[in-house]
Amino acid sequence: MTRCFRGLVMAAAFAAGGLWAAEPAAAQEALHDSHFHYLNYNQDLGMPIATVRGVMTHGVQGDSRTDYSVTRSTLFGIPLQQRWDPSALLARDAGHGDGSFTWGAPSIPDDEPVYYLPTHSELYYYSGVDPLIAEAYCDDVEGLTARDGAPFWDPSITGFNPADVHGADHIVRMMTVYPGIFRAIGEFTIHKEAVATKIAGATPSFDNEALHEIIHVASRLGLVVILHSDMYSLLDEGPEDAAYYDETKLLLKDVGHYFKNYKTPGLLWAHTGIGRFAPKDRTIQLAHFDRLQRILDDPLYNHVGFDIAWDFVARFIRGNPAGWANLYDNANRGKRFVWGSDSLSPTNQQKYTDVIKDYDAIFRVPYTQAPARLMQRDNYAMIFDDPLRRYARGYFAHRTGATKWNCKRDTVVPPPSDDWFKGYDDLYPKEERQELLKAIEKDVDEVIGLYPRAVRAVQVK
């Protein structure tokens, strides 16, 4: 059976709901969430950190009678805060006057902006988000050690402007102030539908040197890069139209040499490049999978992976099962996708677990059972636990004088161990490891030399 024909057969069964109906339900499937926003656009949480973890681990049963439980997750906020100016709002609503306003709790208007779409509020980068994430992580004592010995949470740095080299400075500073906590940067945005035009000041562009430097620093410090860039614009009309694909693809190629030491993907393109203005035309939708395949099959992009986070993306995949079948039914490509919820500070259990249900049909298609587990959890662990990334983060902490590790609970920065390389023997043969570790040290030392002010952030003498 040819791959194309197989995809069509699977598509028909998928649409009819028959592919998994006869399968016995698995007792439980573990998920790792690669895309979770603990804080929203007002830097507010939906539930306390331990409660969120409880909701995730409790899980939900999908329509296929499979129980899903999240056993590990990223942890990040939103890098942008919405400007809230009551005087300006009153002046606008009144249609006259100078907008004079006397502040007082009883007179605070009810129209504080809470999400970027229904308002015209200006957005600005808010660096305070990262200390909030670090404190939340450290407050969840039970979550610091999961069942396999790894923390439940993998915090990520988001509070930087991708169009400003000070963003790289901020990343180094956060790694210095909070040793052993952060394992990624992002989700941060280059192009995003209604967001880019609302950001105060300079907005990031694909050829911005600051953006390149931020990715350079993150990769050198062992941080996974989670990048949002919409592939399409509202004006795209035909299968050849993808307004931002070529520019994003060129950026991904240009930064590839920063990840040369790593054998696992270090840059995750969020939502597979799909945004809110994703194409409705069927021919464009099918062309989307071809665009992903061109990246996945080109060795120049081995450092690139994709998250399929967001219920919008789940519906896109379910609506195009043949395209997804032909793309994903491949041993190499199956190692480049990670699942994520893209949940935004959920306020109750259902608001989080409903997103998991959206992916049940995708996870349970029989021909993707083995790679589905890669996407559900294994790829995430391979990327975030890459021994070279672990070593880079630890070596940076050691070189910058960290005396405490992991929320100041451990007094010694962990040295590299052969146990770190379990499961990575094919990627990092034992005879090559010492040279690779030396290369990592050289890269980290270079970053320390470039950003001495950030490294001095915690010096007291």
TrEMBL record:
<protein>
    <recommendedName>
        <fullName>Amidohydrolase</fullName>
    </recommendedName>
</protein>
<feature type="signal peptide">
    <location>
        <begin position="1"/>
        <end position="21"/>
    </location>
</feature>
<keyword id="KW-0732">Signal</keyword>
